[in-house]
Amino acid sequence: MQRVFALVGPTAVGKSAVAVELAQLLGAEIVSCDSMQVYRHMRILTQAPTHGQRTQVQHHLIDCIEPTSDFSVGEFRKMAAPIIDQILARGRRALIVGGTGLYLKALTEGLCDAPPADVRVREQLWSECQGVGSETLHNRLQSIDQVAASRIHPNDARRIIRALEVYTLTGKPISSWWRQASAELLHGQVMVIGITRTRAALYERINARLLEMIYEHGVINEVRELLRLPLSRTARQVHGLADIEQYLTGKMSLKDTVAIWQQRVRQYA
After folding, report:
1. Which burial class, exposed, middle or buried, applies to 255 when counting CB atoms under 10 A from its CB (0-12, 13-18, 19+)?
2. Statement: the pTM of the whole predicted model exceeds 0.85
3. 191 or 105, higher pLDDT
4. What domains are there in the chain, each with its CATH number?
5. Across the chain, which distance is largest between two alpha carbons, in Å?
């Protein structure tokens, strides 16, 4: 009998609502697989499940890490694996939900044994990225590791920098380390369910969602409070934070902020 499921789909497709209904039908608990919903104080920015949804079904790995702390796929796997084991031990099913494909892959295919982060190299790469942009670094990655470049989006600065860091430290492309990945954790045990919408419908939902976040849900105040904290680099990757920060510092009008943020999320989706 299938006991572990995964619900996947692009941002704004409606995963949270579908997940609650599906979990109730399956007798499952939800394990979030979202790299940003793990953070506290970002409920609106990350569009985390509502209080009502969380009272209907038990959710795990939501709102549990301070945004001043970095959070990695390795840490996610260490936290998620025992949670899933505990859910199954209670005789329940587990429904993994989220938009971070790398995190789901860590559970189903394992993690590569590439060397740990090197602060000096990483800082140099981040500084360069801030100067020339992630697409330029992605082009460099393309020249040394076409496999990794094909799997990493040009806007995903965090993963691009990690791939370049590994190459700098070892002289080997990160994709070669992927092939040496550690033993699979849930291989063959997960039924993956995908949901989608037409591109036009998805873009319409994204545009409407961001307008609601700004004009009805108070995301600007949420960001204002977040910026009072010494946010970690990973927390700063949350969609919308940098754009709203530009507005709050007077560098961009609200109209332009909305337009640029909507465009970024549409491209990501």
Report:
1. exposed
2. no
3. 191
4. 4-112+183-194 (3.40.50.300), 119-178 (1.10.20.140), 199-268 (1.10.287.890)
5. 57
